[in-house]
Sequence to fold (342 residues):
Amino acid sequence: MSQTTFAQALNQAMRDAMTQDPDVVVMGEDVGALGGVFRITDGLTRDFGEDRCIDTPLAEAGIAGFAVGMAMQGFRPVIEMQFDAFGYPAFEQVVSHIAKLRNRTQGKLAMPIVIRMPYAGGIGGVEHHCDSSEGYYIHTPGLHVVTPSTPADAYSLLRESIFSDDPVVFMEPKPLYWSKADLDLPLSTEPIGTAAVRRSGSDVTLITYGPQVPNALKAAEVAAAEEDWDVEVIDLRSLVPFDDATVQASVRKTGRAVVLAEAQGFGGMGAEIAARVQERCFHSLAAPVLRVSGLDIPYPPPKLEHTYLPGVDRILDTIARLQWDDEPDLTHASSHGTEVAV
Fold:
C-alpha cells in the first residue's frame, strides 16, 4: 500500500484499462507528450503509443464527434475536455448524439464513451476554468454523470465508467487532484449509482458530492465540537443514476437535510435533490430542506472566489436555521403511517 494522489489514481485507472482492453483509447488536447494540463494522462503515449493516446486539434466538437464514430466501430474512447467549460462547443455532439444513439437504435448500438471533465473552483482560476456544469448533463437523458471525491473512487469509478456501454460524463474536482490516500491498486469501491455515507450522524443529513465533500466533513467536525450537532455526511458519488435509497434512509433517520453544491443554486443539482427529498421524505422532516450553493453569477476573479464558494461558515449558518430549539411533534404523522414509500 502506498500514498496515491487523486490524479495518480485516475492515471492508473486509464493505464490498467488500456492494458486490459486494446480497444480503450484516450483522446484530447495535449493528452500525449504533455500528459494533459493536469498531467492526468502522463506517460500514456509513451507506454501505449500515439494510436492509443491521441493528441487532437483544438476542437472539442471534433473530439466528441470523432469519439462517436470510434464507439460505433467498437472502440471505448476516453476523451478529455481540458476544463469543463471548454466542453460547451461539444455540447451539441454530447446531447444530440452521444446521449441518444443507444436509445435511438433500441439498444443495438452501445455508446461506451467517457467524457472526462475537470471542474469546480478553488484553484485561483477564472470563469471558463472553474465552472460547475453538471446541471447541463444531469438534465440530459441517456448520460450517466459521475463525480468522485476520493482517490479510491477516482480509480474505481473511472474503471467502471470506461467499461460501461452507456456514455459517462466523468466530472473531476480539480481542487482534489492533489489529495492523497493510502491505496493498494487495483481496487473496487461501490458501483456507479451508489452513494457513500462518509460520516454517520443523527441530527441532520448533509448531502453533497465532488469538491464539496471535504468541506462538508470539516463543517460536520466543527458542528460537533462547537454546537454538539451530530451531522451525517452523504457523498453522492453518482449524480445520474441517483441513489435515492441511501439519501432517504439518512433523512428519515435525522429528520433534517441540507444540500451542499458548488454550482449556482438556481435550477441546479441542489434544487433537484431538495425536491426529491421533499417529495419522498416529507412526513419525516422536522424542518424545510435547505441549500448551500455557489452564487447565481459567473465565476468571479480569483481574489473573490472565496466569497463565491460555499465554505464551512455558510454551511454551519445554514444548519443553524433548521429550528434546533423548536422541534415539531411528529408523533401524529408517524401514528398514521403517512411516510411516503420508497
The mean pLDDT is 94.
